[in-house]
Specification:
Helix content is 4%, strand content 39%. The strands form two sheets. The protein has a seven-stranded antiparallel sheet, with no helix packed on it. Strands 2-3 form a two-stranded antiparallel ribbon. A hairpin with a 2-residue loop joins strand 6 and strand 7.
């Protein structure tokens, strides 16, 4: 897992179609542009605390984080139940689902093919950041 600082330049608005496009049966959709959005403002709430982290592996597929995706990670956020976190466990960094069970916190994989994740007693744990978004490039470079 590799973290990259987010470099923010000038705003780069991208056209936003006025009507949502159906993901099911085709619908006549027009190409009327309603507005523009700035992807930086959409994905990044706290620039100094935000990093992009490349996802490696398939332990988070049910959380819709896939191998090769870029996770937007905000280090200023406090984890909430169900959040995806980047966590250091005994010096090894990985993605886990943060679950609170009573006064206990459980870290879990988001892939049923993986065995239950169990922490060793006395493990050193540090939440590095909370995933606030992701970028899923559909067409991978060859």
């Amino acid at each position: 897992m590799q973290a990259s600082g987010v470099t923010i330049g000038l705003p780069m608005p991208v056209p936003l179609l006025a009507r949502p496009v159906r993901a099911g049966f085709p619908s006549p959709a027009d190409d009327f542009i309603e507005d523009e959005i700035d992807l930086q403002r959409l994905l990044i709430a706290n620039r100094p605390a935000t990093f992009l982290v490349r996802v490696a592996g398939d332990s988070m597929v049910l959380a819709r984080l896939f191998d090769g995706d870029l996770a937007v990670v905000d280090r200023s956020l406090t984890p909430r139940n169900g959040d995806i976190v980047v966590v250091d466990i005994d010096g090894e960094r990985s993605f886990k689902v943060w679950r609170r069970q009573g006064h206990r916190v459980v870290l879990a994989f988001a892939n049923p093919r993986f065995p239950e994740f169990r922490l060793d007693p006395g493990a050193e744990i540090e939440v590095w950041g909370v995933v606030s978004g992701s970028i899923n490039p559909r067409r991978r470079s060859e």
